[in-house]
Every structure is written in C-alpha cells, then in structure tokens.
Amino acid sequence: MEDPNANAAFAAAANFYGEAYGPPSPPAGGADPFRRELPEPDVWILTSGGLRIPAHSGILASVSPVLENIIDQPRKHRSSERVIPILGVPCDAVWAFVGFLYSSRCTEDQMQKYGIHLLALSHVYLVPQLKQRCTRALIRQLTVENVVDVLQLARLCDAPDLYLRCLKLAHAHFESVEATEGWKFLQKHDPWLELEILQFIDEAELRKKKRRRNKEDQSLYLELSEAMECLEHICTEGCTSVGPCDAEPLMKKEPCGKFTICRGIQLSIKHFATCEKRVGGGCSRCKSMWQLLRLHSSICDQPDSCRVPLCRQFKLRMHQEKRKDNARWKLLAKKVISAKVLSSLSQPKRKRAEELREEVSDRSIRSMRLPTIASH
C-alpha cells in the first residue's frame, strides 16, 4: 500500500521542480510530466513533522557541500533508501529551503514567515546565496521586539551585516529594547552577549562625542582661518577705519563686505595699540590679539615682506628660543590650514562663503578663542 503522505509530497515536489526546469511539455497518454522531465528522485529529506520530501542527490550536492558530504557517505545496505534528516525547524521552512536549492528562488512570503529558520539552514548547509537573501530580509524585518533574538542568531550564524544592524538598532532604541522579554532572557542566559551589546553602545557614544568634538574643532579652525585672512586684509589693503602704517584708512562708513568679523578685528587692533594694561598682561582682549598675531606668524611663510605687525619679530623669537610650545603652535597652524583646505575641497566656493558667514555672524574678536595649546 502506498504512503499517501509520500504521494502528496511527490506531487507537490513536481511543482517547484517543474518551475526550476521550466514548464513541462504537454502530457502524452496521461503520463506524469514531472516523471518524464526529471529522473526519479534518489534521496528523501525527512523533516521534524515526518514529511518526506523527494529530491535528487546530484542537485543537492551541486548546491551544498555539506549535503554532498552526507550523500557521499557509504550506506549500510545498497538497497536501503538514502534519507537526509533536516530536523529542528518547521516542515514548511525545510520545503522552502529545498525549493531554493532547486530554483535559487524564495518568495517574500516565505522569507517573512521562515527567514530566521532559512538563515540557520543556509549557514548549516553552506548555501551563501540564500544566506545573503535571508540577511537582507531579516534586516528589513528588524524591530525593537525581535532585535535581541535576531542578534543571537546572527552571531551563531556568522552574519556580520545583520549582527551590526542589530547592534545599531539596540543602540538607537536601548531603553525600549531593555524592556523586552528578549533582553530579560539575555541577561539570565547569555551575559557575554549582553556585555558585547553594552560595550558597543559605550564605544558608539564615545565615537559620537569624538565626532561632535572634531566638528566643533573644525568650526573653530575655520573661524581662525578667516581671522588670519581678515588680519592680512586689514594690514595689507586697509579697511573702513584701520589700514597699513604707511597709508591712510579708507574711512568708509559701510561695514566690510569681505569678512564678517572685520569690524571686530579693527576695533581690537585699535584697542591693542592704545591699551595700558597690555604690557602687564592684564587685558584678556589684548591677550587674544597677541595670540592671533603669533598664530599668523606661525602660518606666514614670507615674514620679511609681511605687513602684519610683529610677524617678523615672532618668527625670530621662535627661531632663537626653540621652546617646546613652538611645536604646538606650528601644529595648531597646520590644523588651521588643513581645515581651510578641506573646506575648500568639500564645498562649492559660493556655498562655503555663505556658510562661513552664517557660522561667524555677529561674532567678533572679543569672543574669539584659541584651542588650549597644551591639549594639541
């Protein structure tokens, strides 16, 4: 008596076998087109529900090296059936897995229902194409509720892309993830994975703070770069109320349209020239101006012809004293130049000028600050 389950499985197998090899020819004399198009199956795949799926050893072996090794193992009796058990997953997931081995296709509905099981099968039986598809599908299906479970599976199945996406989602919504049953289970049964997640979150926060700090530093270096250009502009060309020592200032009432902080630097130059506290070092405004002049001297490569005050004197002093902080000033000057170059390369000229003016608008040399030299 024939097994009805086997007949049903055999008939259903004909469907995707036929799809894999193209539509069968019209039947002649009532013959089964599947039996005519393909040879008889020579291996059975046994599922947890007792379903026996007929298959062809040559096709299985050509797609999966693990199945090839299983098929090549010697049998106790030549007449016995070759059965490959695939247990521990739903029968429909095994069916979808075998269908992929034949057709290299898997429906979205199958991925939606059995993506986790198919990922495990693709890893165990070394089917990289299916593993990639499962990874992409599970990334799209990630939620706060399932992220811990998928993360554990991604680690076991060596799926780095999926693992990283899970970590990022856990980091972005950690408070919600921490309240899930999956996280509570993880804390009790897998403390090492919990530690990995917490370490990733800590490192991500440190990287975030570092990027924010670097962005702030770059903004500061750009401000200093504009201040250097503005200082040269005033001392070389002259502006509304301050100009070179051998020429009269333009005495225009309109603000300078070339630099947004030009007015502030002009006021600071006037203050620096007449301040009585400057010599004793008691004026913070003069100290900022003094630092700008020294920074300009560290950047300037033509001190003999430069018209910025004290440029040549600072160069000589740094050359003679050779103090340790001179190297720090040079490093700061290099960072200012580098920030200007990177800004020029990354943005169109007009857009760069507009953004720079927005950043430093309503600021003056009074609020200009230099980075702590000791920290560089």
TrEMBL record:
<keyword id="KW-0479">Metal-binding</keyword>
<dbReference type="Pfam" id="PF02135">
    <property type="entry name" value="zf-TAZ"/>
</dbReference>
<dbReference type="InterPro" id="IPR044513">
    <property type="entry name" value="BT1/2/3/4/5"/>
</dbReference>
<dbReference type="InterPro" id="IPR000197">
    <property type="entry name" value="Znf_TAZ"/>
</dbReference>
<dbReference type="GO" id="GO:0005516">
    <property type="term" value="F:calmodulin binding"/>
</dbReference>
<dbReference type="GO" id="GO:0006355">
    <property type="term" value="P:regulation of DNA-templated transcription"/>
</dbReference>
<keyword id="KW-0862">Zinc</keyword>
<comment type="pathway">
    <text>Protein modification; protein ubiquitination.</text>
</comment>
<feature type="domain" description="BTB">
    <location>
        <begin position="41"/>
        <end position="110"/>
    </location>
</feature>
<dbReference type="Pfam" id="PF00651">
    <property type="entry name" value="BTB"/>
</dbReference>
<dbReference type="GO" id="GO:0009725">
    <property type="term" value="P:response to hormone"/>
</dbReference>
<keyword id="KW-0863">Zinc-finger</keyword>
<dbReference type="GO" id="GO:0042542">
    <property type="term" value="P:response to hydrogen peroxide"/>
</dbReference>
<dbReference type="InterPro" id="IPR035898">
    <property type="entry name" value="TAZ_dom_sf"/>
</dbReference>
<protein>
    <recommendedName>
        <fullName>BTB domain-containing protein</fullName>
    </recommendedName>
</protein>
<dbReference type="GO" id="GO:0009751">
    <property type="term" value="P:response to salicylic acid"/>
</dbReference>
<dbReference type="InterPro" id="IPR011333">
    <property type="entry name" value="SKP1/BTB/POZ_sf"/>
</dbReference>
<keyword id="KW-0833">Ubl conjugation pathway</keyword>
<dbReference type="GO" id="GO:0008270">
    <property type="term" value="F:zinc ion binding"/>
</dbReference>
<dbReference type="InterPro" id="IPR000210">
    <property type="entry name" value="BTB/POZ_dom"/>
</dbReference>
